[in-house]
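#lab-general

N.A. 3:47 PM
ok so I finally got the sequence cleaned up, no stray characters, all 308 residues accounted for. can someone with queue access submit it? mine expired

B.Y. 3:52 PM
send it over

N.A. 3:53 PM
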Amino acid sequence: MGLLYNIGIRCYTAAIATAGGAHAKARLWREGRRGLLERIEGDMAHETRARVWIHAASLGEFEQARPIIDKLREERPEVAIVVTFFSPSGYEIRKDYNKADYVYYLAADTPQNARRFTEAVAPQVAIFVKYEFWLNHLAELRRRHTPTYLVSAIFRRNSIFFRPWGGAWRRALATYDTLFVQNEESKHLLESIGYHNATIAGDTRFDRVAAIAKQPTKIPIVERFRGNRRLFVAGSTWQRDEEILLELINSNPEICFVIAPHEIDQRRIDHLISEVKGGAVRYTESCNRSDFSNVQVLILDTIGLLSS
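B.Y. 4:20 PM
back already:
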Protein backbone atom coordinates (compact mmCIF):
# COMPACT_ATOMS: atom_id res chain seq x y z
CA MET A 1 0.00 0.00 0.00
CA GLY A 2 2.86 2.39 0.80
CA LEU A 3 4.31 1.94 -2.69
CA LEU A 4 0.92 2.47 -4.36
CA TYR A 5 0.27 5.53 -2.19
CA ASN A 6 3.61 7.10 -3.12
CA ILE A 7 3.05 6.39 -6.81
CA GLY A 8 -0.38 8.00 -6.50
CA ILE A 9 1.11 11.12 -4.86
CA ARG A 10 3.68 11.46 -7.65
CA CYS A 11 1.02 10.99 -10.34
CA TYR A 12 -1.19 13.61 -8.68
CA THR A 13 1.70 16.07 -8.50
CA ALA A 14 2.53 15.48 -12.16
CA ALA A 15 -1.13 15.98 -13.13
CA ILE A 16 -1.26 19.29 -11.26
CA ALA A 17 1.94 20.43 -12.98
CA THR A 18 0.44 19.55 -16.37
CA ALA A 19 -2.86 21.29 -15.62
CA GLY A 20 -1.14 24.40 -14.29
CA GLY A 21 -0.97 26.08 -17.66
CA ALA A 22 -4.74 26.07 -18.15
CA HIS A 23 -6.22 25.94 -14.65
CA ALA A 24 -5.66 28.92 -12.33
CA LYS A 25 -5.97 26.92 -9.10
CA ALA A 26 -3.55 24.27 -10.33
CA ARG A 27 -1.12 26.99 -11.35
CA LEU A 28 -1.22 28.52 -7.85
CA TRP A 29 -0.74 25.05 -6.32
CA ARG A 30 2.34 24.46 -8.49
CA GLU A 31 3.89 27.93 -8.23
CA GLY A 32 3.34 28.10 -4.47
CA ARG A 33 5.42 24.97 -3.96
CA ARG A 34 8.33 26.04 -6.14
CA GLY A 35 11.37 26.35 -3.84
CA LEU A 36 9.08 25.77 -0.86
CA LEU A 37 11.26 23.46 1.20
CA GLU A 38 14.35 25.57 0.65
CA ARG A 39 12.41 28.60 1.91
CA ILE A 40 11.16 26.72 4.97
CA GLU A 41 14.64 25.42 5.75
CA GLY A 42 16.03 28.95 5.47
CA ASP A 43 13.36 30.40 7.75
CA MET A 44 13.69 27.69 10.38
CA ALA A 45 17.48 27.93 10.46
CA HIS A 46 17.06 31.30 12.18
CA GLU A 47 14.09 30.37 14.39
CA THR A 48 15.09 29.60 17.98
CA ARG A 49 11.62 29.32 19.54
CA ALA A 50 9.69 26.11 20.16
CA ARG A 51 7.33 25.49 17.25
CA VAL A 52 3.73 24.32 16.94
CA TRP A 53 2.69 23.10 13.49
CA ILE A 54 -0.99 23.41 12.53
CA HIS A 55 -2.18 22.03 9.19
CA ALA A 56 -5.49 22.83 7.46
CA ALA A 57 -6.59 21.65 4.04
CA SER A 58 -8.25 24.88 2.97
CA LEU A 59 -10.04 28.00 4.17
CA GLY A 60 -12.93 26.19 5.87
CA GLU A 61 -10.58 24.01 7.90
CA PHE A 62 -8.50 27.07 8.76
CA GLU A 63 -11.62 28.64 10.30
CA GLN A 64 -11.85 25.53 12.47
CA ALA A 65 -8.19 25.90 13.43
CA ARG A 66 -8.44 29.61 14.09
CA PRO A 67 -9.87 29.44 17.64
CA ILE A 68 -6.96 27.15 18.53
CA ILE A 69 -4.40 29.47 16.94
CA ASP A 70 -5.90 32.51 18.65
CA LYS A 71 -5.93 30.81 22.06
CA LEU A 72 -2.41 29.49 21.57
CA ARG A 73 -1.14 32.96 20.65
CA GLU A 74 -2.85 34.40 23.74
CA GLU A 75 -1.66 31.79 26.24
CA ARG A 76 1.71 30.79 24.74
CA PRO A 77 3.13 33.93 23.09
CA GLU A 78 6.65 32.51 23.33
CA VAL A 79 6.07 29.74 20.74
CA ALA A 80 6.34 30.04 16.97
CA ILE A 81 3.17 29.01 15.15
CA VAL A 82 3.67 27.39 11.74
CA VAL A 83 0.52 27.03 9.62
CA THR A 84 0.37 25.00 6.40
CA PHE A 85 -2.32 24.66 3.74
CA PHE A 86 -2.92 22.10 1.05
CA SER A 87 -5.20 24.26 -1.10
CA PRO A 88 -4.57 27.64 -2.73
CA SER A 89 -8.03 28.80 -1.66
CA GLY A 90 -6.81 28.67 1.94
CA TYR A 91 -3.21 29.79 1.51
CA GLU A 92 -3.86 32.74 -0.80
CA ILE A 93 -6.44 34.24 1.57
CA ARG A 94 -4.62 33.61 4.86
CA LYS A 95 -0.92 33.77 3.93
CA ASP A 96 -0.62 37.07 5.82
CA TYR A 97 -2.53 35.95 8.93
CA ASN A 98 -0.93 37.96 11.69
CA LYS A 99 -1.33 35.46 14.53
CA ALA A 100 0.78 32.86 12.75
CA ASP A 101 4.53 33.34 12.53
CA TYR A 102 4.89 31.34 9.33
CA VAL A 103 2.32 30.33 6.70
CA TYR A 104 3.26 27.89 3.95
CA TYR A 105 1.85 25.44 1.49
CA LEU A 106 2.33 21.79 2.48
CA ALA A 107 4.77 20.10 0.13
CA ALA A 108 3.52 17.07 -1.80
CA ASP A 109 3.41 14.10 0.58
CA THR A 110 6.42 12.14 -0.66
CA PRO A 111 8.77 10.43 1.84
CA GLN A 112 11.59 12.84 0.96
CA ASN A 113 9.45 15.97 1.29
CA ALA A 114 7.93 14.81 4.58
CA ARG A 115 11.38 14.12 6.03
CA ARG A 116 12.78 17.49 4.97
CA PHE A 117 9.77 19.39 6.28
CA THR A 118 9.61 17.74 9.69
CA GLU A 119 13.39 17.97 10.16
CA ALA A 120 13.33 21.68 9.30
CA VAL A 121 10.29 22.65 11.37
CA ALA A 122 10.93 20.13 14.15
CA PRO A 123 7.57 20.86 15.81
CA GLN A 124 7.09 20.23 19.51
CA VAL A 125 3.40 19.66 18.77
CA ALA A 126 1.52 18.99 15.52
CA ILE A 127 -2.22 19.61 15.04
CA PHE A 128 -4.22 18.48 12.01
CA VAL A 129 -7.74 19.69 11.27
CA LYS A 130 -10.68 17.44 10.39
CA TYR A 131 -9.78 15.37 7.31
CA GLU A 132 -6.07 15.65 6.54
CA PHE A 133 -4.26 12.28 6.59
CA TRP A 134 -0.95 12.60 4.75
CA LEU A 135 0.67 9.24 5.37
CA ASN A 136 4.33 10.20 4.94
CA HIS A 137 4.13 13.35 7.06
CA LEU A 138 2.34 11.36 9.76
CA ALA A 139 4.97 8.61 9.55
CA GLU A 140 7.71 11.19 10.11
CA LEU A 141 5.88 12.60 13.13
CA ARG A 142 5.66 9.06 14.55
CA ARG A 143 9.36 8.51 13.91
CA ARG A 144 10.19 11.72 15.77
CA HIS A 145 7.72 10.88 18.61
CA THR A 146 6.07 14.27 18.11
CA PRO A 147 2.85 14.77 20.14
CA THR A 148 0.19 14.97 17.42
CA TYR A 149 -3.53 15.73 17.59
CA LEU A 150 -6.49 15.66 15.23
CA VAL A 151 -9.23 18.22 15.94
CA SER A 152 -12.83 18.63 14.77
CA ALA A 153 -12.56 15.21 13.15
CA ILE A 154 -15.51 13.29 11.82
CA PHE A 155 -15.49 9.66 10.69
CA ARG A 156 -18.12 7.84 8.67
CA ARG A 157 -18.69 4.13 8.23
CA ASN A 158 -17.83 4.25 4.52
CA SER A 159 -14.45 5.97 5.14
CA ILE A 160 -11.28 4.19 4.00
CA PHE A 161 -10.27 3.52 7.61
CA PHE A 162 -13.06 0.97 7.94
CA ARG A 163 -12.51 -0.77 4.58
CA PRO A 164 -10.57 -4.04 4.19
CA TRP A 165 -7.93 -2.23 2.11
CA GLY A 166 -7.54 0.68 4.54
CA GLY A 167 -4.69 -0.77 6.60
CA ALA A 168 -2.20 2.02 5.86
CA TRP A 169 -4.73 4.66 6.93
CA ARG A 170 -5.64 2.72 10.07
CA ARG A 171 -1.94 2.56 10.98
CA ALA A 172 -1.64 6.31 10.39
CA LEU A 173 -4.21 6.90 13.14
CA ALA A 174 -1.61 5.60 15.60
CA THR A 175 0.22 8.92 15.10
CA TYR A 176 -2.39 10.83 17.10
CA ASP A 177 -2.09 11.07 20.86
CA THR A 178 -5.74 12.18 20.97
CA LEU A 179 -8.40 12.34 18.26
CA PHE A 180 -10.85 15.12 19.10
CA VAL A 181 -13.99 14.08 17.22
CA GLN A 182 -17.27 15.84 16.57
CA ASN A 183 -19.76 13.14 17.50
CA GLU A 184 -20.50 9.86 19.23
CA GLU A 185 -20.59 7.85 15.98
CA SER A 186 -17.02 8.84 15.15
CA LYS A 187 -15.87 7.72 18.61
CA HIS A 188 -17.64 4.35 18.27
CA LEU A 189 -16.20 3.77 14.78
CA LEU A 190 -12.68 4.40 16.02
CA GLU A 191 -13.22 2.07 18.96
CA SER A 192 -14.39 -0.64 16.53
CA ILE A 193 -10.89 -0.70 14.99
CA GLY A 194 -9.06 -0.55 18.29
CA TYR A 195 -8.57 3.18 18.85
CA HIS A 196 -9.77 4.22 22.30
CA ASN A 197 -8.06 7.63 22.43
CA ALA A 198 -10.93 9.63 20.91
CA THR A 199 -12.63 12.43 22.82
CA ILE A 200 -15.92 14.03 21.78
CA ALA A 201 -15.14 17.75 21.64
CA GLY A 202 -17.56 19.06 19.03
CA ASP A 203 -16.61 21.30 16.13
CA THR A 204 -14.30 24.29 16.66
CA ARG A 205 -16.10 25.96 13.76
CA PHE A 206 -18.85 26.87 16.25
CA ASP A 207 -16.28 28.67 18.41
CA ARG A 208 -15.22 30.65 15.35
CA VAL A 209 -18.83 31.47 14.39
CA ALA A 210 -19.52 32.66 17.95
CA ALA A 211 -16.47 34.93 17.80
CA ILE A 212 -17.57 36.37 14.45
CA ALA A 213 -21.08 36.98 15.77
CA LYS A 214 -19.65 39.08 18.61
CA GLN A 215 -17.87 41.35 16.13
CA PRO A 216 -20.14 41.51 13.08
CA THR A 217 -18.74 43.02 9.90
CA LYS A 218 -21.10 44.84 7.56
CA ILE A 219 -20.52 44.53 3.83
CA PRO A 220 -21.86 47.77 2.27
CA ILE A 221 -22.46 46.29 -1.18
CA VAL A 222 -24.53 43.46 0.30
CA GLU A 223 -26.44 45.89 2.53
CA ARG A 224 -27.27 48.05 -0.51
CA PHE A 225 -28.20 45.00 -2.57
CA ARG A 226 -30.56 43.70 0.10
CA GLY A 227 -32.38 46.96 0.83
CA ASN A 228 -35.65 46.07 2.55
CA ARG A 229 -36.01 42.67 0.90
CA ARG A 230 -35.82 39.28 2.55
CA LEU A 231 -32.38 37.80 1.93
CA PHE A 232 -31.45 34.15 1.33
CA VAL A 233 -27.73 33.33 1.62
CA ALA A 234 -26.44 30.16 -0.07
CA GLY A 235 -22.87 29.50 1.02
CA SER A 236 -20.16 27.27 -0.45
CA THR A 237 -22.45 25.92 -3.17
CA TRP A 238 -21.69 23.18 -5.69
CA GLN A 239 -23.17 22.84 -9.16
CA ARG A 240 -25.95 20.47 -8.03
CA ASP A 241 -26.91 22.92 -5.28
CA GLU A 242 -27.12 25.72 -7.83
CA GLU A 243 -29.44 23.73 -10.08
CA ILE A 244 -31.89 23.46 -7.17
CA LEU A 245 -31.33 27.10 -6.21
CA LEU A 246 -32.26 28.30 -9.68
CA GLU A 247 -35.72 26.77 -9.29
CA LEU A 248 -36.10 28.42 -5.87
CA ILE A 249 -34.89 31.81 -7.15
CA ASN A 250 -37.08 31.92 -10.22
CA SER A 251 -40.19 30.90 -8.28
CA ASN A 252 -39.63 33.54 -5.54
CA PRO A 253 -38.97 36.87 -7.26
CA GLU A 254 -39.75 38.85 -4.09
CA ILE A 255 -36.70 37.34 -2.28
CA CYS A 256 -33.11 38.34 -3.05
CA PHE A 257 -30.27 35.85 -2.95
CA VAL A 258 -26.55 35.98 -2.22
CA ILE A 259 -24.71 32.96 -3.63
CA ALA A 260 -21.13 32.12 -2.65
CA PRO A 261 -19.88 29.26 -4.86
CA HIS A 262 -17.46 26.81 -3.28
CA GLU A 263 -15.13 27.33 -6.23
CA ILE A 264 -15.09 30.42 -8.41
CA ASP A 265 -15.74 28.84 -11.79
CA GLN A 266 -16.49 31.50 -14.40
CA ARG A 267 -18.50 29.15 -16.60
CA ARG A 268 -20.78 28.21 -13.71
CA ILE A 269 -21.18 31.86 -12.74
CA ASP A 270 -22.02 32.77 -16.35
CA HIS A 271 -24.60 29.98 -16.39
CA LEU A 272 -26.18 31.22 -13.16
CA ILE A 273 -26.41 34.77 -14.46
CA SER A 274 -28.00 33.63 -17.71
CA GLU A 275 -30.62 31.46 -15.97
CA VAL A 276 -31.82 33.92 -13.29
CA LYS A 277 -34.98 35.62 -14.56
CA GLY A 278 -34.84 38.44 -12.01
CA GLY A 279 -31.31 39.56 -12.87
CA ALA A 280 -27.93 38.60 -11.39
CA VAL A 281 -24.58 40.37 -10.98
CA ARG A 282 -21.09 39.57 -9.75
CA TYR A 283 -19.86 41.10 -6.50
CA THR A 284 -16.60 42.21 -8.13
CA GLU A 285 -18.56 44.19 -10.73
CA SER A 286 -20.59 46.02 -8.08
CA CYS A 287 -19.86 49.01 -5.88
CA ASN A 288 -21.48 51.04 -3.07
CA ARG A 289 -23.35 53.13 -5.67
CA SER A 290 -24.65 50.27 -7.84
CA ASP A 291 -28.34 50.18 -8.69
CA PHE A 292 -29.72 46.80 -7.58
CA SER A 293 -33.39 47.62 -8.10
CA ASN A 294 -33.65 45.07 -10.93
CA VAL A 295 -31.20 42.55 -9.53
CA GLN A 296 -32.37 39.50 -7.59
CA VAL A 297 -29.08 37.61 -7.18
CA LEU A 298 -25.63 38.77 -6.06
CA ILE A 299 -22.86 36.24 -6.72
CA LEU A 300 -19.79 36.41 -4.47
CA ASP A 301 -17.05 35.79 -7.05
CA THR A 302 -14.37 36.40 -4.42
CA ILE A 303 -13.17 34.53 -1.33
CA GLY A 304 -13.28 35.57 2.33
CA LEU A 305 -16.66 37.32 2.64
CA LEU A 306 -18.97 34.40 3.41
CA SER A 307 -18.25 34.22 7.14
CA SER A 308 -19.34 37.85 7.51
